[in-house]
Design goal:
Distance between the termini: 71 Å
Largest sheet: 5 strands, mixed, barrel
Number of domains: 4
Number of strands: 22
CATH class of the largest domain: Mainly Beta
Length: 398
């Protein structure tokens, strides 16, 4: 039975009256409602309770910017701390969640009255949510969902969420709940920022990553001696200039007896391309055979991150950042090599920052290194989009 039929059956309205009220809502709030979502809001205003089987759900993996509103059923994978948003004299509260359905995760932002569901712990990690009439928009260039005054959220169950164990080399910006086991190679003093405690530290498991722990987690990290192996459960990844590990207060911190021997760059094995294995840090000697691609994008130096025409921080003075792909070969095989900002500057022996150069200037300088013999330090990785092998250059040796 359709929503309109349900409303007609449970109210004194005719079908024409129902359609008229639905059209009125769509006209009053252009771009917010579909016919189905407007019918749902009308039913709610009339006090009509619709069973979940009457609600048409949209799978997370098909939501795109052509969809205005969506009803979804998903499990809460991660909850960020609530924040305030101030615009003029108006203050709003919001909290960002990561919700998952099968293999697809998206951001869900709860506004104002819905934040109380987090503060009262009615919604927590593992809560299964039935969300109705969510708005569809973008957050950091990705599809995101948000509540409006017409939304409705119900907790329909619980699911145990286990952090996914990963090596540092396998981490990505889409990792919001991971387990890391690595050597604590350095740490700074525990310090206070506003009303929070934070400690910055560095981890190694064959690869390095910088990390920050907060409040209770920060105090636990502070107790662990440098050189010990630390186990962190419940961290998430964010990108500044590089990927970083962020450890919230409720993460679990422990130690293990696993040993990670730090290998100096100079002691890394020299390998042929045909001998490369995924994730192994090695030195690679060969010849730059040709330019595979030069990718440019807007970059905010204030936030150290990729941006659109204007950064989220409000900065309009963006610069160009670059990714370069070469075809690199030795006497055993060829492979694609990928270089980022600092590595490109080192390859070209630049004194200036490459972000201040135009694409034509970068392209011209890259032509100088074609057919040159080079030694790189890095690792082999499979591109998740193309499926091709790529050697990620961490340092230009010579």
């Amino acid at each position: 039975m359709s929503l309109i039929e349900q409303i007609k059956k449970k109210s004194n309205l005719s079908e024409d009256e129902i359609n008229s009220k639905i059209t009125e809502k769509i006209s009053k709030y252009p771009g917010l409602f579909t016919e189905e979502s407007a019918a749902y809001v009308l039913a709610k205003e009339l006090g009509i309770v619709l069973e979940d089987k009457d609600i048409k759900l949209t799978p997370l993996n098909i939501i795109d910017n052509t969809i205005k509103t969506a009803n979804v059923n998903a499990v809460v994978e991660y909850i960020f701390p609530p924040k305030e948003y101030v615009q003029g004299s108006k203050k709003s509260k919001y909290v960002r969640l990561i919700v998952r359905e099968d293999d697809t995760s998206v951001n869900l932002t709860l506004w104002d009255k819905f934040v109380a569901l987090i503060e009262t712990k009615k919604i927590k990690k593992g809560s299964i949510l039935m969300c109705k009439n969510l708005s569809v928009n973008k957050y950091k260039n990705k599809i995101s969902l948000g509540t409006t005054s017409f939304s409705d959220i119900q907790v329909t169950g619980e699911k145990k969420i286990e952090p996914e164990q990963k090596r540092i080399n396998d981490l990505s910006e889409s990792d919001f709940f991971v387990k890391i086991e690595a050597k604590l190679v350095s740490k700074r003093e525990l310090r206070n920022i506003n009303s929070s405690k934070v400690i910055n530290f560095r981890l190694y498991d064959g690869f390095y990553i910088n990390a920050s722990a907060w409040d209770d987690a920060a105090e636990e990290v502070n107790k662990i001696d440098i050189g010990k192996t630390i186990v962190i459960e419940g961290a998430y990844v964010r990108r500044r200039q590089k990927l970083e590990l962020n450890v919230p207060s409720d993460a679990t911190i422990s130690t293990s007896n696993k040993v990670f021997e730090v290998v100096a760059d100079a002691d890394l094995p020299l390998k042929k391309i045909s001998e490369l294995a995924y994730g192994e840090r090695v030195r690679l000697k060969g010849t730059i055979k040709g330019l595979d691609r030069l990718v440019s994008y807007n970059w905010c130096d204030k936030c150290n991150k990729k941006a659109e025409e204007v950064c989220g921080c409000g900065n309009k003075d963006l610069v160009k950042n670059y990714i370069v792909g070469f075809i690199f070969g030795d006497d055993s095989a060829t492979t694609k090599t990928i270089l980022f900002r600092n590595q490109i500057s080192a390859l070209l022996s630049l004194q200036q920052d490459i972000t201040g150069m135009t694409e034509d200037e970068v392209s011209s300088k890259l032509s100088i290194v074609l057919d040159k013999d080079k030694e790189f330090l890095g690792y082999l990785k499979k591109n998740t989009f193309s499926g091709e092998d790529e050697f990620i250059v961490m340092r230009v040796v010579s």
